[in-house]
Amino acid sequence: DAGVTQSPTHLIKTRGQHVTLRCSPISGHKSVSWYQQVLGQGPQFIFQYYEKEERGRGNFPDRFSARQFPNYSSELNVNALLLGDSALYLCASSLGLALYNEQFFGPGTRLTVL
Amino acid sequence: DQQVKQNSPSLSVQEGRISILNCDYTNSMFDYFLWYKKYPAEGPTFLISISSIKDKNEDGRFTVFLNKSAKHLSLHIVPSQPGDSAVYFCAARHGGGADGLTFGKGTHLIIQP
């Protein structure tokens, strides 16, 4: 059974550009969460979506947005990219809303902003 | 401010010995704590968790201890094996539930043969 998949694996953008990252959860999982991991730091919570609705939001600017589709896959969008947005973006899926041990992470998308 | 702190960026332990990874937190509203393990080029993998109403949880070679009064938890791995070499993250969940997991910066555990 496939785990959480994310695309692309690597991405290079320049300042001011826009980026879309994609995540496919484990089959049957209805919740998707997004995290940003800057080098040397732990993952930082950005969003959680459940049943296509935003259920939680971390301390990130409005340049960050996300959505969840009817098949429970998700997109993370970042507008007006800054150098500080360079990070590993992790997607995690879970069956329900509870953020316990049933949260499974994908391998991440490495975004570099030049 | 960092609400979950892992003060040791790295830890080197001999194979077969006990590894002890430490984590401190400041937010008394955290009600659930988790440890994740991360290999390079992979996402974090859940290892073990503990509820704030317990002080110990054990799963095979892994045991997590929680000291609520000190706002401190630790992960014990015994015996340590080469495959345990990885970055270990301590994470906490806020009782309100809508803010995701709060992670520490991680500790890089190196198991020496």
What's this model, at a glance?
The complex is a heterodimer of chains A (114) and B (113). With 114 residues, chain A is mostly beta strands.
| Share of residues in strands of chain A | over 45%
Report the C-alpha radius of gyration of chain B, rounded: 13 Å
In total, how many beta strands of chain A? 11
Secondary structure tally, helices of chain B: 0
Shape of chain A: globular
How far apart the termini of chain A lie comes to: 37 Å
Number of domains of chain B: 1
CATH class of chain A reads Mainly Beta
Structural class of chain B: mainly beta
Description of the molecule:
- The complex is a heterodimer of chains A (114) and B (113).
- Chain A is mainly beta.
- Chain A has a single domain (5-97, 105-113), classed as Immunoglobulin-like (Sandwich).
- Chain A contains no helices and 11 strands.
- In chain A, strands 2, 4, 5, 6, 9, 10 and 11 form a 7-stranded mixed β-sheet that branches. Chain A has a 4-stranded antiparallel β-sheet with strand order 1-3-8-7, with no helix packed on it.
- Chain A is globular, with a radius of gyration of 13 Å.
- The model of chain A has no long low-confidence stretch (mean pLDDT 93).
- The relative contact order of chain B is 0.34.
- Chain B has one domain: Sandwich (Immunoglobulin-like), CATH 2.60.40.10.
- In chain B, the strands form 2 sheets. In chain B, strands 2, 4, 5, 9, 10 and 11 form a 6-stranded mixed β-sheet that branches. In chain B, strands 1-3-8-7-6 form a 5-stranded antiparallel β-sheet, with no helix packed on it.
- Chain B has 113 residues and is mostly beta strands.
- In chain B, a hairpin with a 6-residue loop joins strand 4 and strand 5 (45-51).
- Chains A and B meet through strand 5 and strand 10 of A and strand 4, strand 5, strand 9 and strand 10 of B.
